[in-house]
Amino acid sequence: MQHTHLIRTLIVTALAIWVGGPVLGQSFYKDAQAPFEITIHDEDLHDPERGRDVPVKVYAPVGAEGPRPVVLISHGLGGSREGLSYLGKFWASHGYVCIVIQHVGSDDSIWRDVPARERLSAMRQAVTEPKHAINRTGDVTFVIDTLEAGNGEDDGPLHGDYDLDKLAIAGHSFGAWTCLAAGGMTLGSNTNLGDERIKCMIPLSSPAQSRPGLRDRTYGSIRIPALHMTGTLDTSVITNMPAEDRRIPYDHTPGPADHGASQYLVIFDGADHMTFGGETGRTNRRLSRVSDQANAGFHKVILHSGLAFLDANLFGDDAAQQWLNGAGFLGVVEPVGTLERKLAQ
User: Fold this and answer.
1) Which of 44, 201, 295, 342 is most open to solvent, judged by the fewest CB atoms within 10 Å of its CB?
2) Are 328 and 341 in contact (CB under 8 A)?
3) What is d(CA 345, CA 231) in angstroms, rounded to the nearest whole number?
4) If pLDDT is split at 50, 70 and 90, which confidence band does 19 have?
């Protein structure tokens, strides 16, 4: 399977070079000032059926007309709704309502009141508990249900006009697992907690947890487009996952030729696990091996390619699709990494 994917990528790359001219030096997608100011608003939702709190942070464009498209964002293990703000701010400034969901139980409550020397152990324990994974997909479905019912606060951005035919999900680490599960991945032998209202997904630093013989079944049930991203230093101190295993979900998710949807894989040269969390400054220096300057370059590719992916798959934007499938995307990735694509022939 992997050799077939590489052949397809080489064909697409060659075609892009032939059609689009020189690959290097291509411009970023919509490399212009964002059209919208944004508002940021916290809401503390409660799911009475599960007896569960679901805090969210909403990034919303000011003055966007008509029903608004939505991107749900899922944080990693030990995170909160305060994280991944670089995604929410950028995509909201281009017209998307971005909702960061805090998953209680696999959020920062794991480590905040734990002595520093015991925090890694607490994180490792939390990730082994199946209830946290199940709660995460339940949180996603609950937030979508809330949007459909208009049950947010009367003066808040969740009580508004949404186009839930244009709904995506993005996430980092455990949040990337949440993307895959909500996007249709098969769990265990035959459990599927996917939500068919989600039209596409952007998993960043995906974990790969199934055994080799089960991977085609695990990811073979995914039928929506995905933009996968990882880095050559994207290891995990929680699960001891090597960086090369991050590509497994991409490799085993069917593309259009296998009755699936378009799949993209970006592997940044020198990006580590915390690159995708978006932290900079002192926090980044404490958690990451990558400089703020290098991360700024990676983040620009993440944000602009993510925007093109959303525009193409939620709005059917031809210019965005051409940028993704042609020389534009390849041109901005090649200086900092590699790009693989499974596209319709």
Assistant:
1) 44
2) no
3) 28
4) very low
Residue 253 φ then ψ, to 5°: -90, 130
Which residue's structure tokens are 């995990």? 236
Alpha helices in 253-291, H assignment, sequence order: 281-287
Q: What percent of the chain has pLDDT over 70?
A: 89
Q: Quick one: tokens of 12?
A: 């697409």
Residue 266 pLDDT > 90 = yes
Determine the residue type at 117: R
What pLDDT, on a 0 to 100 scale, did the predictor assign at position 161?
78
The 10 Å CB-count burial string (b at 16+, else e) for 210-223 is: beeeebbebbbbbe
Q: Which amino acid is at 183?
A: G
Report the alpha-carbon distance of residue 102 to residue 298 in Å, rounded.
25
Of 339, 305, 337, nearest to 91 by C-alpha is 305
pLDDT in tens, 192-207: 999 999 999 999 999 9
**b vs e for 229-267, b when ≥16 Cβ sit within 10 Å of the residue's Cβ?**
bbbbbbbbebbebebebbbbbbbbbbbeeeebbbbbbbb
pTM to 2 decimal places: 0.89
User: Crossing angle of helices 130-149/174-182, nearest 10°?
Assistant: 60
Instruction: Quote the CA–CA distance of 151 and 341 in Å, as a whole number.
Output: 39
